[in-house]
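for the recovery benchmark. tokens below, seq after
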């Protein structure tokens, strides 16, 4: 397995993976969206390759300044290809992302998920359900 940063040439495959967790109205990001974010120093998209060099997992990681923790990391869109689930790829990409978060100076990392079946993995990595937050959505 190889953990690495996403390249712009990975866009079609990463979008395939994102479609596996998106809702019916999910519109995958454009190549331009990926390109602009890959140049931001605080935004990272990581990919995990299997032994055949195919991307089987991806994760978005962002870090923001935080007065209490210096830097706070945010993980979103953790995806493992449906055909590769329950084989350690999710754990590997999460562990590798947390190592990167520490290198970036993040003393706290938040994670959002809409898939309850993934919570056991996140809890085994040390995440705790944060009950003090209220998720609200605004759309225009």
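predicted aa per position
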């Amino acid at each position: 397995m190889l953990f690495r940063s996403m390249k712009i040439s990975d866009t079609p495959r990463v979008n395939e993976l994102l479609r596996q967790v998106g809702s019916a109205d999910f519109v995958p990001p454009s190549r331009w969206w990926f390109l602009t974010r890959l140049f931001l120093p605080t935004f990272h998209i990581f990919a995990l390759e299997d032994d055949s060099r195919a991307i089987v997992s991806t994760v978005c990681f962002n870090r923001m300044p935080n007065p209490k923790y210096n830097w706070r990391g945010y993980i979103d869109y953790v995806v493992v290809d449906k055909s590769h689930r329950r084989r350690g790829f999710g754990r590997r990409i999460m562990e590798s992302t947390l190592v990167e978060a520490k290198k970036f100076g993040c003393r706290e990392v938040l994670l959002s998920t809409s898939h309850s079946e993934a919570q056991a993995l996140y809890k085994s990595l040390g995440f705790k359900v944060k009950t003090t937050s209220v998720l609200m959505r605004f759309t225009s």
